[in-house]
Protein 1
Amino acid sequence: MNFHILTLFPETVENGLNSSVIGKAMEKGTITVKAHNIREYTTDKHKKVDDYPYGGGAGMLMQAQPVFDCFLSVKEEIVKRSGKSPRVVYVTPQGAVFHQSMAEEFAKEENLVFLCGHYEGIDERVLEEIVTDYVSIGDYVLTGGELPAMVMVDAVARLVDGVLHNGESSQTESFQGPLLEYPQYSRPEEWRGKKVPDVLLSGNHQKIEQWRLEQSVVRTKERRPDLYQKYEILKNCENHLLKNKLFHMDMLEALRRGNARLLYFEEDGVLLQEKNSGAYLFTTKDRTSGEKILRSIFSDPPQREKVKLFVSHQECMNAFLCEFFSINLEMECIQAVYTRKEPLPVKRGMDIRKLDAGFLSALEKHYHGYVEAGYVESQLKSGVMYGIFEEKKLAGFIGMHKEGSVGMLEIFENYRNKGYAKALEAFYINLHLKNGWTPFCQVETENEKSLRLQESLNLYMAKEQLYWLGK
Ligand code: ADE
């Protein structure tokens, strides 16, 4: 990922970001950070870049011309390489407040431009021309945009694959949710009479996890009552969905893995948006409640148009959904869930490995699922695809769908009936268990073979079907 920072103080930004984790990521080439000096673009012979504001008022304003010309030069370079105009973030106290989900959204970009103001700000006309996002780092005023831009670069860069821990995918990062982190301790075991809590020395991982969660809850309640309130709502929603656990596992896992934007929760229904796929997941008591909920959440027609993927848990909603969102019914599925905590045995001698980009054409050739263009490539790049090999040759593969279900399983024709599908799925279920997740699959209703495979691995099926709808 490439960060481009337009500033009057390039050395502040470069010096501030060239050490530690971000500095190392720059050295490795995982990210680039380039500061562009706006002053170099002024047409003023004295190199002036600011002037008094019309109408009076304190301080000076940065003028439109040097900012615009600096941006055009950076944009030209970006378009030449990527074919796409970049997102331009103006860092300003008059913006939306930066938060983690904004960082996650920015981390999906290949190029990101930050425009740093100084003095009293920048001539509005150039902002209207070039800015796509107005963002503040908090409700206080700093002397310039350089520190806020550095804060955002740091928060976004650590989400880029390979910056924090090599090869770990952000799609498999464990759930932090709305809770603050628990307290941590290192050696020595006793310091100034204070002992490390016994449980942390016990070696019992389940107990340690439990203790850490309790500490997180206590700390959040004390220090951030606003976040604690959100946590309570999520917990109540989780308990509501747990009344039909197998059927709602997709929604439960989106919540637990921290991938859900909760849009509605009452006794009559739950609507959330899964962040990786953008899919809306919905369950409701009956058709009347369902319609009422969706009409209130999507009251604006432009909002409705943005809905590209929708998972409905009730068949009675489908006709309404098709008309309301102009989408079509694409797939009927049964949800199968691995409810145990113990890993599954994987047949001995199976050669299963993570797949890299070199396998793209094999995967694209053999994957038969109903997905949009670029889907297989995107899953492969995010590090969630695994292959099974026979005598070093790829014999089949498995992966995870964007919304979190185990899937994308294919065994190539000459390698069938050798137990490879079962080995791959058992292996993948174990991966999800290691993340602390509940593994689940969504199997097309008529896929008898896959349904039998789920049964043979002791997955439980939900009684009711769910429905994928899309554009
Ligand atoms: N520039 C000055 N103060 C700022 C803030 N709080 N956030 C973003 N940019 C700023």
Protein 2
Amino acid sequence: MDHHNRHSRPREECGVCGIFGRDDAAKLTYFGLYALQHRGQESAGIVASDGNRISQHKGMGLVPEVFSEENLQGLKGHLAIGHVRYSTTGSSNITNAQPFTATHQGSTISVAHNGNLVNIRTLRDELEKKGSIFQSTMDSEVVVHLLARHAALGLGKAILETVKTIEGAYSMLLMTEDKLIAVRDPGGFRPLCLGKLTNNNGSYVVASETCALDLIEAQYIRDIDPGEILIIDDTGLRSLYLDSGQRKSYCIFEQVYFARPDSEVFGVNVYQSRKRMGDILAKECRVDADFVMPFPDSGNYAAIGYSQASGLPIEMGVIRNHYVGRTFIQPTQSMRDFSVRVKLNPIRSFLEGKRVIIMDDSIIRGTTGRSRVKSLRAVGVKEVHMLISCPPTKYPCYYGIDFPSGGELIANKKTVEEIRDYLDLDTLYYLSLDGLIQATGGSRDSYCTACFTGEYPVPPDKEFHKLALGSHVRCCGS
Ligand code: SF4
């Protein structure tokens, strides 16, 4: 990870993928995780079962770095679940790599979790008082302990009792020796979808995003419903529902930034939704400029939408180096803003003297934005206007997105005018919340918008809140 730039962008959270009913389940899970790599780059893991024996492989790094043809062959069986994870540095170790597997009274259960439980401290303390011993700091391990406590009820009821006690965001895959179970929290914060593998009856895939289905040529069936527990085994599919009365709380940031543009998330195609954000920005804020330009790749689709709606041309005046790894040797101190320039280089001869609209999807700390504007001024851009395809990000996320704590978010401390001044911009405009919701085609009461409004659909417990205020809110229960 580029430590210099840490948290200048919101970090992706986690991705999950599971396969039921194919002899090459682990290999298909591998490809599913490959498609979900954008959701987590620090560790990856797959657990497989042949109906009796469970085997697993986990490691730090990107999916192709963690898995080889050889170790995939060792993951035998028709059933597999996998996980890609992003975490903060402090918890970035193999103990916290998922899926998490435990054996209780002779049966094994594995859990791969995307999201954050907001009552995790309370649950953990209670379990520890009752004698539970934890190996990791993951939410998934707490889930496994809770399941073990209810084991006598049978699997379906044990899961139902467990999800009644956990609060927050969870799109989870569970696996026993012979069952694949998909669970989504009643708010449905994180996406989770069900697909059918072609040319084999009774084979299913569950994944965070539909782009994973596309890669393995699976057919999308439907999203797992908020509050649904879907159990897949040799007898077919059956669902249980948790009726908590909670309203839907789809994470609107999935649409703005996290999800891949080729995915259908919460029933909407992300590419089109991002284009519409640009389209609505053009209606809300017209700027007299020579052209609109994304900083690749974050503002690409909104820039297309803005260009088409406003009639202003779109240009790619900043070139991205595609081969920059996650870490690089830091240059000497005199090479200022190096980490921005190494990735993105403005074309001096083209940009000189121009009036430019920059399109981006977020301003988190403001440090990256500031360096980018500086790099444009340095090549002689005359006017720099910046349009952001969502409202100001003012509050931390408790539901699995690794934003910095509230105090470090620039919009938490400064007004839009102060941010404009800090970034040295001629214009700064943020898309309105109504405009953003309109772009997604949803309604205000189906989305979580807490990082813009501070209205948290599921209040975190006190300990969790303190943690979020004091440091980074960690992802996936890390
Ligand atoms: Fe998504 Fe923001 Fe809600 Fe977190 S607070 S779930 S990032 S909309």
